[in-house]
Every structure is written in C-alpha cells, then in structure tokens.
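Lab notebook, bench 4. Still working through the backlog of constructs that have no structural model yet. Next entry is a single chain of 503 residues. Request: give me the structure tokens for it.
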Amino acid sequence: MRINPDEITRVLREKIESFENLPNLKEVGRVIQVGDGIARVYGLENVMSNELVKFQNKSMGIAINLEEDNVGVVILGEYKNIKEGDLVERTHKIVEVPVGDELVGRVIDPLGNPLDGGSPILAKKTRPIEKKAVGIIERQPVNTPLQTGLKSIDSMIPIGRGQRELILGDRQTGKTAIAVDTIINQKGKGVYCIYVAIGQKGAAVARTVEKFRQYGAMEYTTVVVASASDPAPMLYLAPYTGVAIAEELMFSGKDALVVYDDLSKHAVAYREMSLLLRRPPGREAYPGDIFYLHSRLLERAAKLSDDLGGGSMTAIPIVETQANDVSAYIPTNVISITDGQIYLEPGLFYSGFRPAVNVGLSVSRVGGAAQTKAMKKVAGNLRIELAQYRELEAFSQFSNELDPSTQAQITRGQRLMELLKQEQYSPMPLEEQVIVLFAAVNGYLDDLPVEYVKKFEDEFLSYMKKKHFDVLKTVEQTGDLDEKTAELLEVAIEDFKEKFKVV
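Model written out:
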C-alpha cells in the first residue's frame, strides 16, 4: 500500500487549522458536604474570594472561605436539593449587581431581581458589590445640607451630603420613621434614595413601600429587600447591593442617600454564616472581622471632589440597641465608624415626645459645616436653651421654690420641647422650621400655655404663607436670616400674636 505524500500534507494541514478550536473547558468541583446553606466544595483550585459559583441545580453560591483542601461556599437561595457529589462550576465573576437608572422606582432583591411584579430589569451596567472606598484626595469636605424635614434633627444634629449618620435606639422607638421621613423629604431636591430593608417582615416592608408610593417618593427611590424569611447570605449581600447602586449614582455626579435598616440584623446574618463556616468566634460570638464588615461598607459614603463630578453618597445606618445599652459590641463599632449618631430614647417616646431624639446623647460631627446660615443663627441658642432646661428640670424636682430666672428657663424649655414634637410623614421645609424656631428661641411662646404651642405653630405658618410669603421666600432662596428679614419676622410674629386667641 503506497502512501500519497499530498494526502498526508492535506490531513496535517487540516489538523493544524482546526487546532485552535479547543473544547470549551470549565473548571468544576464537587460538593463534599452540604447543610444549613453552606456547601464544602473540592476541586475549585483557582477560585477567587467572593466569586460566584453555579451548582448543578442552577442555584448560585459565593466562595467565601478559601481553605487548603476545599472551598466554603454560601448558597444563595434554595439548598435543600443540593447533595453530596453534585458538580459546582466557576463563573469567573466576582459578585456584581445591576446598577443604573433602570432601578429607580423598583423593589428588588439583593441580586437585582424584581420583587414588585414589574417587568424584568434590563440594566445596561453592573457593578461589583465589594469595591475599595475612594481615598482622601478624591474627596472634599461635607458642605451641603441634606434636609430631613425634622426640626429637632435639622436644627441640632444636622446631616450633610456625603456624611454617615447613625440612628440607634431600642426597638419600636421610631428609628425607621426618621429614615422614611428623610426619604419623603428629598422630593424635588435632586437626591436619589436607596432604602435597604434587612431581615424585616415582608408585611412591614410592604407598608413602607406603600407609604413611599403614597407620598410620591418611589419616583426617586430604589428599595432593596432581604426579608426575614430569606437565607443569611441574602441578608449579608443586601447592604452591599444598596451601596453599589448608590456608588454608580455618586460617580455619575448625582447625590444619593442610602438607608441600611438595620445593621444589627446584618451582623447577626454574618455571624450565622461565619459560625457555619467554622470561623473562630470572638466577642458575643461575632467573628473577628465584624468591624471590617461594616467599616468597608460605610467608608464608601463620600462627597467626591469636583474633578470626579462632585457627586455624593450619604449613609444612614440604623442599629438596634438592647435595653438602652449603647456600649454593646455592634453599636460601639458603628458609632466609631460614623460621623455622629441620633440616639432615640424609649422614655421620651412613651412620654409622647416624638421623634424621641435625646439631644444630649446625639451628635453630628460634620453637620455645622453643612448647615445654612439661617438655621445656624436660630439653632445656636436652641441647643444651649435645651441643655440648661434638662439640667434645671432634674434639679427642680428636688426643690419647691425656684427663683424667677430658673422658672423662666424651665418655661422656655417646656415650650421648646413641645415645639420640637412632629407628626410622622409630615417633614417641614427649612424656611418654615427657621421661622417657628426663631419665634420660640426669642421668647414669643413663653407666655402661651404649653398645650397651645402646636396650635400656635400651625396657625402662624398659615398666616406667614398668606400675609408674609416674601419672608419665607427670602429665607428659602438666600439660606440666611439677615437683620432686615429678622426685623420683618419680628413684626409679623407680634402682629400674629395680637390676633392669636387662647381659648
């Protein structure tokens, strides 16, 4: 049998040409142990930390523990039908979520899937959930106010765009109410809001979303939900999804506000995952990196420099305390990461003072720089008056006879406290806050019975809108309360007081 050299050449050429068409190789491993939402996988030698992996039943997981002989994977979603020996495939992707304008007005889960029954989200961009926070050079000082619409906060514990302000207090003291009011108050102010609900009941989240719809806040808000019935990995992911969505807005030169409600449940979910992954427990059984978990999340809030577009991301984390214990592990951690805290006290809440802000224990380490001149002029005296009132109130309980000056300070303090009460879902514009607080700190309410303060406030604001709208407009446009405006305001208050009837 003769071999034709031409034929050999042709065969060799064909082989060489088809050499590039390699089979589609995938790196796969096998499940060696599974249970409680955690899988141990053998064989994924090149897997990256925080990489998404795909199970045989189409469930996804995140490779979190990279150990010597296996990988600890937390399973996102259903894990009951994953069994020993199942194949696990690498995706070569770090966990990322959809971001962009397509998410505005939507309710989503931490992976970006819609939960509001609307159309699928076809976002053009995605963003990794973990990203290094911007450095000092890329930031600028916080200098623009973010109005909450709440008198007690905007006057004494102001929040600036790019700040991180913690809200903490026992359960059922109105923490979520402050965050919801702040989001409602951003209407027309060009601030995009992201509300992250972590470990809450589905019914409670549905009520909050309904309130957003009712007050027109869903037009600029995205709600990320990991409810109480979701597995721990989803609760762990939720705030990182929120921050990734906000970061995209910030780098587009926009202002974003993220509310994490709440980080104590987030810490508990992370502790559950860590203990199941056999990580060594530390204080209160939390893993050693629990501080880093929250610091790398909150540090991403910033006011960017003008070179980067001047966008901002303001973070409002919420932390629940047990029996007023501010010195517990998670509260102290988050207090030390943030630029101030708003402390809500059950005693004030149950006595009818709402929002139940304890002005003595609350602080804003940035706000003064991000406060309008008008509010600074009014609020400077307010804080001192209230501090003196609290001191004298405690003292007056042990004394029957008080000298006139002490009695006058207590009278003023009682009226200020009454004025700072505010109904939920009724945030107040800055200029209205300024004029009512001006009336109070300048003693115009001192001769009114305490129970008439609310009536005075409502009727005075109506009177100003009808008769002296120019004063409100000046304060709104200039952000200042100059001498001329203050004089006009004093005349208006005196005119109104003559007509105001205490019946």
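Notes after review: The two ends are 124 Å apart (CA to CA). The mean pLDDT is 92. Flag for follow-up if needed.
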